[in-house]
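Hi W.,

Here's what went into the run:
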Amino acid sequence: MIKIAVDLMGADKNESLLLSGVIDAIKENKELFVYILGTEEVLSPILKEENVNPDQYEVINCSDVVNNTDNPMEVFRTKADSSMIKGISLCSKTEDIEAFVSCGSTGALMVSSMMILRPLCPTLTPVLLCELLKKNGEYICLSDCGANLDCPADKILSFAKMGSAYMKAKGVENPKVRLLSNGAEDSKGTTLIKETNKLLRESSLNFLGNIEGSTVLTTDADVIATDGYSGNVLLKTLESGTTTVIKEISDYAQTLEGEEKEKLEAFASSLTKKYDYNTQGGAVLLGVKKPVIKGHGSATGDTVLSIIRIAYTLAKNNIVDKIKEEFGI
Amino acid sequence: MIKIAVDLMGADKNESLLLSGVIDAIKENKELFVYILGTEEVLSPILKEENVNPDQYEVINCSDVVNNTDNPMEVFRTKADSSMIKGISLCSKTEDIEAFVSCGSTGALMVSSMMILRPLCPTLTPVLLCELLKKNGEYICLSDCGANLDCPADKILSFAKMGSAYMKAKGVENPKVRLLSNGAEDSKGTTLIKETNKLLRESSLNFLGNIEGSTVLTTDADVIATDGYSGNVLLKTLESGTTTVIKEISDYAQTLEGEEKEKLEAFASSLTKKYDYNTQGGAVLLGVKKPVIKGHGSATGDTVLSIIRIAYTLAKNNIVDKIKEEFGI
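Here's what came out:
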């Protein structure tokens, strides 16, 4: 049995809607146990009505919620009864809970995870990574995608290692790592990028060199290492490019009629689903003692199902041990 | 009469093909005079055959060419007879030539322009900027898009000023400036971004705050200020996003038949043209004594026409004076 904790509060959608993802996850996986953090009187009746196996979950009632307007630096001290802080504390205290899932405030979740769960070792800076679906249907992991803005070269090297460990936990053997730069050659990049390139060349990672923004969705690589600022620019700009062209398709469909119009609208919707990096999956905080998976604030039941699957896979494949191996901890 | 110099060598396409853009530019604009740098025996017969007004051009024969494999740091010393160096030198020596256009090696063009044309004042760092076509058909200027990788805050402020001067020369009154960051709030960003935000707030520019990558093609702004590294990541990632989705449309079109298929293929082609930032226009080097407009290596006659129009507009509207005004030079 793999045990995880899931926080259903603080997102845009209400708890009962997000709960549908938990129910689907439990029903498809007999090896999963979920501590569900939320409002018991809302959640328990639904779980009973849906005949969810009571041996696979426990509802933990929470009387407070972390909001997006709360100061991320303070909630771990001031909101002990919130679903987020109660969930992270439970993970910290309970050895056999292996991952935490939440769609609440990103800042609060990151700070609280670092303060309560603590880094795997004192010198390790946790990283926020996410996966991008490439055109060929494979995923590439972007590490860091926004947590660490001012980074020296050795930190970016550690993001590459955690990205590599993540892809190993997802079943990729010897993940191919690339470094984001403004040119493919080793000689290209800022002073920081050139230093990082050198560290990556000297490391035991399967480092294939630099990558430019133009080829992130077509490259034969598994991990893009970068500082959190550039990673965030990359992630959001990709969204800008894909959504703008998808909107062009929708606009064009309006000039058509009948079946031709319907087919093209359906095609545009399928692309939105494929390339919507915000809602399709989650960002993963690694480098703290247990992996923390963050769903987007606008998450639906499907998103919750999807990020619980990620949490399960990471736990099942011992992501924490894989990270320790990379760092020789 | 506005005089500019155009280098037709060193690009992927041959001189006679690129010349068609020069011929179109001259024929559409009686106020334009072009010094054409290339192989006289190739160019002169075509210009005569096409009945181009001999009062609007002069061919300057060049016996050497700058290649992409040449060391950018050396060509301004070693290739004096190349079309690029001869053209830049001509601009430097001839007061009434107001702009230089080339589709040759970017690195060589930038270094040679800085060495021969020289910065407008010793403390000014030249910037490479480009325009992005937004979904609504308006343009936004990205400054810097790749020339200056390691930048302190005051340099990014100067890129904002040159971007603003550029948009003024293009007819935009009081251009709206935004700063690329990982969040819209002033408090978001790296230490560098926060410092730059402060300088922009204190400046006389029409600064509207930070912008995230996700809204670059939909924002109500005219200039995005950024360091050259992040600007380059943004530019290339945008390309990745748009071309990936356009390729999806082309693939989908192959599953259709007859007129429906043809219409969708034509639609995909129109989008490629609209969102291909590499070939649609040029990057502009500002901050040297005369503007230098760089077409992509894969430029066609249409690209040359398009970048000559930019050069003409910048010269006609006194871009150099507008930059001097911004900096109080």
